[in-house]
Amino acid sequence: MPYHIKKTSILGTAVPENGNEYYTENDSWTNIYSDRKIYTNKADADAQKATTVTSNFGITYQPLWWKNSIVVEE
Fold first, then answer.
1. How many angstroms from the chain centroid is the CA of residue 30?
2. DSSP assignment of 13-30, as one string?
3. Which long-range contacts (CB under 8 A, 24 or more apart) does 27-32 make?
4. pLDDT tens string for the chain (74 positions)?
5. How many Cβ atoms are within 10 Å of 44's Cβ, its own excluded?
6. Is 66 in a helix, a strand, or coil?
7. Distance separating alpha carbons of residues 30 and 28, to the nearest angstrom
């Protein structure tokens, strides 16, 4: 089954696709459903969703756009 990652836009329903944004690649999101990145297995999508970053001060955290996203089975 294919999967994709989506989140609610901070603009809410003011954007198309009922306020949803879809992960594309290279830390980019789009509100165009057909432009979403499709994962062939859930493990890859879950790994992408678990992305963390480390600040210049050595603090590792998960950005809100990943924390608030969900993996969706198509």
1. 9
2. GGSTGGGEEEE-STT-EE
3. 29/65
4. 899 999 988 776 556 557 899 999 888 999 899 999 999 999 999 999 999 999 999 999 999 999 999 999 99
5. 13
6. helix
7. 7
Q: Report the predicted TM-score, pTM, of the whole model to 2 decimal places.
A: 0.84
What amino acid is encoded at 18 in this protein? Answer: N
What type of residue sits at position 6? Answer: K
Query: Taking phi first (over 0 means left), then psi (-120 to 50 degrees means alpha), and beta for anything else, what does residue 3 get?
Result: beta
Cα–Cα dist 51/48, whole Å = 5
d(CA 31, CA 35): 8
Residue with tokens 């432009």: 35
Dihedral angle computed from the Cα positions of residues 41, 43, 49 and 50, in that order, rounded to the nearest 10 degrees: -170
